[in-house]
Write a structure and sequence with these properties.
Blueprint (H helix, E strand, L loop, with lengths): L13 H8 L3 H10 L5 H10 L7 H15 L4 H13 L2 E4 L12 E8 L8 E6 L1 E4 L2 E4 L2 E7 L9
Parallel strand pairs: 2-6
Antiparallel strand pairs: 1-4, 3-6, 4-5
Helix pairs in contact: 1-2, 2-3, 2-4, 2-5, 4-5
Amino acid sequence: MTERPRAPAVSGAPPRRAALAASGPMAEALAEVAGSGISQALAQQVERLFAEGPAGREALVEACIGCRDQIAERHPRLAGTLLDGLNRAGVREIVADGQRFDPRVHEAFGIEPTEMPELHDVVAETVKRGYADGDRVIRVPQVAVYRHGALGAGTAP
């Protein structure tokens, strides 16, 4: 009898990561972030996502966006890895800076007073980025909007 060679059992090792990478660009990006060692909790979240086998597209998109929100400020390179995975899967980021405020596609999150009337109702800053999967908006961007004459006027329109 000849015995078949067995693959080495390596805990948390490359074979698992390779299996995730084979699932597509979002799974690959999540695997890279989880394997980076920046957060045990984040690694556990990703591990739970794939515990039942390959995750569906919606779950992957949600996980990539959620992880990106958590790490963007402290780990911009890894946040970029997640954005790249999203982009390669057809999901784009929505940044509204400089656009005319439109309540159908933006969520007002704050007011930025301005003395320049031409900036009234223009997005001053995207506070929380939005995302779209093709033509479907997943999350609208939360924005701060310039308001002319808002100095001392409070939040009343």
